[in-house]
Amino acid sequence: MTTALAAAALWCAVAARAADPVQPAQLRALPGTAVELAAKDGWKLKAVYSPAQEGRLSIVLLHGTGGRKEDWYRMAKALAKRGFGYVALDLRGHGESRTTPDGKPAVWRKFVVSKNYNEYLNMMEDVAAAVAYLETQGVPDEQIALLGADVGSSLALRYAALHPKIPMVGLLSPRLQYQDVTTVNAMRAYKDRPVLMVYSEADKGTAKELPILQHFAKMSAGERQVTVLAAPAEHGVKMLRGPVVGRIIDWFENPTQQLDAALAADTATVNGETAEPAPTPSGSTDDDAAPAAAPPAP
Fold first, then answer.
1. Would you say residue 160 has pLDDT above 80?
2. Are 105 and 99 in contact (CB under 8 A)?
3. Helix extents (H) in 29-123
4. Alpha helix (H) ranges present in 95-183?
5. What is the distance between the alpha carbons of residues 38 and 40, in angstroms, rounded to a whole number?
6. Residue 206 lies in a domain
7. What does the CA dihedral 56, 257, 234, 179 come to, rounded to 10 degrees?
8. Sign of the alpha-carbon dihedral angle for 78, 48, 50, 151
9. CA 217 → CA 89, 272, 276, distances in Å?
10. Rounded to whole angstroms, how far apart are CA atoms 142 and 223?
């Protein structure tokens, strides 16, 4: 009987770890102050805020599907060291932001994505809550930038497209859509501001679609405003290793500088091994494989 109970307890522990592979004890706390954000539709969102030094940007950090604010540990630590401010939040249904406005538990795996309702698109209110919080701290919109990964990149671009005072946006592994949160029309509307797109050739889906977004970015923002950075491997925040972090922060400092678009020249060490260089995408032209018509906005 004792053996059976022990086996059952072990099975429950394994199941719990499988349900949420990142356990709180393993998370590295972000430098800054824990705060709670209030979205207009009632969600309460857990976040960490670190103020910027005078003259520096404050950056809203938006993780990807299934992620959480602690995913930005490397970036947040480097940003703080170089004087940048940030708000890193757990988007609704993620991390510590798992209680709906009516008090029920919620998790991103069960979010509805359909033609008539998309909880991921509702995360635009989460982005707005982070920007609003920075404004309460005296940070004007002109000093607030966005950096998103995976679906967070789609949210960042869409928010910036609707708010022209946002000076620049960085996108990790951007695609034409994540969770039906589309980006082509947002890129068309972005206009005349710097945009950074970071990708890896090892991430086949992003590598295939990035030239399309690059094409629209150049048409919308202008060729000099578009920077593409190739990381050696991985997807989203997992690319934040080696020199990638520093290159992204360099871009926030001077977004129109001529960054070496290939981290191939810098081979990064990933998981104890030297990663092979990743090629950079060729410059887009009017002959790029862009769709004849952009997909309709959701």
1. yes
2. yes
3. 73-81
4. 124-136, 151-162
5. 6
6. yes
7. 70
8. positive
9. 27, 35, 28
10. 22
Structural domain includes residue 86: yes
- Tokens of residue 26, six digits: 């393993």
Tell me, yes or no, whether 279 lies in a domain: no
Do residues 289 and 211 touch, judged by C-beta distance below 8 A?
A: yes
How far apart (Å, rounded) are the C-alpha atoms in residues 110 and 173? Answer: 23
121 pLDDT more than 80: yes
pLDDT classification of 259: cutoffs 50, 70, 90? low
Residues in CB range of 91: below 8 A, 6 or more apart:
45, 62, 63, 97, 108, 123, 126, 152, 155
Which pTM value belongs to this model? 0.81
182 within 8 A of 176, measured Cβ to Cβ: yes
- The count of residues in the chain is 298
Q: Does residue 169 sit within a domain? A: yes
Q: How far apart are CA 167 and CA 126, in angstroms?
A: 19
- Each residue of 70-88: pLDDT tens digit? 999 999 999 999 999 999 9
Q: For the domain that residue 232 is a member of, what is the CATH number? A: 3.40.50.1820
Return the DSSP state at 109. Answer: G
- pLDDT tens, 95-112? 999 999 999 999 999 999
Angle between helices 151-162 and 124-136 (to 10 degrees): 60
Print the domain residue range for 267. 28-274
Number of domains within the chain: 1
How many Å separate Cα 233 from the centre of its chain? 16
